[in-house]
Amino acid sequence: MRFDKAVIILKNKFFILGLMAALLAVIFIILDRATIYEKKDLAYGVTFSKQQAIGLGLDWRKVYLETFNDLGVRKIRLSAYWNEIEAQADEYQWGDTDWQIQTASGYDADIILAVGERLPRWPECHFPSWTSGVDEQTKEAKLFDYIKATVLRYKNNSHIIAWQVENEPFLPNFGECPPLNTDTLDREIALVRSLDTRPVVITDSGELSIWIQAASRADIFGTSIYRDTYSKRLGQYIHYPITPDFFRIKKNLVALFAKPAKWIVIELQAEPWGRTPFQDLSKKERDRTMDEQKFKDMIEFARQTGFREFYLWGVEWWYWEKTVQNDPALWADARALFNKTEIVSK
After folding, report:
1. What pTM, to 2 d.p., does this model score?
2. Structural domain includes residue 345
3. Total structural domains within the chain
4. Comparing C-alpha atoms, which of 190, 248, 184 is closest to residue 219?
5. What confidence tens digit (pLDDT) does each residue in 37-84 have?
6. 2 and 58 belong to one structural domain
């Protein structure tokens, strides 16, 4: 009996010690302070979309050149939109994508090139129109052909530092997209890795996704950070009641299950998100989700998350404000940010 009691006591002690160790681990994860980098040590880039610039009525090439010449951007994420490159089945048109990549390379910029059917900017999925009458098996084969052709065309450009495969693939119910087929996604990733050794970026929503599925597939994991948006589902504007620690703690937890070599903020909100496209909103309503003060606040909020590299979302809007609305303040703030001088706003 004494032996049995001793075993039970020993088991209980081990259980208690294990429970305490688990509790201490959780506390460590939650309370651990990630390095908060000094401003001078941070790196900033932008996402640029030709389609977005055209939608705003802008000369997209001029916006693009000013992004480098005036803002001083040297990190950029570009999209090889399938519906632009293969507008007609089996006919690839590379001209505009070539120009963007060659121009960025001429400025010695680092390029992340996104490929796939779901890429940045609404409607999220950018299918060529001819795919609507094609069966799924053929459509998938054509998707893989376009991805392969794109990677092979640009793999010898040393300024491309990574390939992004799809955009926020694990974010459901957003955009005009079919349900995710994870098997197709995994084969897309495998295809890109078979063609080139550069890292693969997989992205996910910062506020609405759990990250594990995306991060576990990524060499570089990229999250978005938004604070003020409009929810069509709720019919109202939303301010996310989160602090920078939310992202730090989330990263610490996900890092227990996924080990990407690098964590970045691939999409940092720096433009309005309204009930309609922002160009159709009044300045007062645009300001509800992004203005000069919110821009400054977002930059500091992002720094406090412990991430070090950020790609801002909104360069086309800053230019639109400057040239169409005759308000250059945000453009000037962005220029100061990229040149690592103090942001001065009204």
Report:
1. 0.91
2. no
3. 2
4. 190
5. 999 999 999 999 999 999 999 999 999 999 999 999 999 999 999 999
6. no
Residue 21 shares a structural domain with residue 44: no
- Indicate if the alpha-carbon torsion angle 185, 176, 269, 238 is positive or negative: negative
Task: Spell out where the chain has E strands.
Answer: 43-47, 75-79, 110-115, 160-165, 200-204, 220-225, 228-231, 236-239, 262-269, 309-313
Which residues neighbour 331 within 8 Å (Cβ) at sequence distance 6 or greater?
Answer: 70, 71, 318, 319, 321, 322
Same domain? For 3 and 120 the reply is no
If asked whether residues 192 and 282 sit together in one domain, one would say: yes
Confidence band of 198 (pLDDT split at 50, 70, 90): very high
Beta-strand pair 228-231/220-225? unpaired
Cβ within 8 Å of residue 282, ≥6 positions away = none
Q: Classify residue 343: in a domain, yes or no.
A: no
**What secondary structure does DSSP assign to 117-165, as a single string?**
SB-SSTTSB---GGGGGS-HHHHHHHHHHHHHHHHHHHTT-TTEEEEEE
**What is the span of the domain harbouring residue 258?**
38-338
> By CB neighbour count within 10 A (0-12 exposed, 13-18 middle, 19+ buried), where does 300 fall?
exposed
Question: Side chain identity at 227, as an amino acid letter?
Answer: R
